[in-house]
Specification:
about 130 residues, mainly alpha
Length: about 130
């Protein structure tokens, strides 16, 4: 499925790095839904939506970073600038979203929220280690 999406949009992507970025985001979304469904089926809806929020807290800032990197020009200097701005924005967005969730969402299973956040973040490392 992911390969079909990538093939259809190949003209819009500048290089294989863009494909890798999209693959990471797709895997993060898939992992989030897998965790959410697992908690929904085997625990309760509070842990399920806490898991979903944890995954989204990881994905949304990464989408911001990905958009910055994909939209950046191809010169090394501009890519580096986009990466710095994107990473700074990602950190700020992550803090703001965590604060928002803890203020607005009640009841919340904080342990599951953080576990899901960490697992979904870890997908980046796994995909980068695979080197594809």
């Amino acid at each position: 499925m992911l390969n079909n999406i990538v093939q259809k949009n190949k003209g819009n992507l500048k290089n294989n790095n863009d494909v890798g970025i999209i693959r990471i985001l797709f895997l993060q979304i898939t992992t989030t839904f897998f965790l959410t469904i697992t908690f929904w089926l085997f625990d309760n809806k509070i842990t399920a939506y806490s898991s979903l929020l944890g995954g989204l807290l990881s994905i949304i800032p990464n989408v911001f970073l990905a958009a910055r990197l994909i939209a950046s020009p191809t010169s090394a200097k501009e890519v580096l600038r986009a990466a710095y701005i994107g990473e700074a924005g990602k950190v700020v967005l992550t803090f703001l979203l965590f604060g928002l969730v803890f203020v607005i969402v009640k009841p919340l299973d904080a342990k599951i929220l953080f576990i899901s956040f960490i697992v979904v973040q870890f997908v980046i490392s796994i995909e980068l280690l695979r080197g594809k």
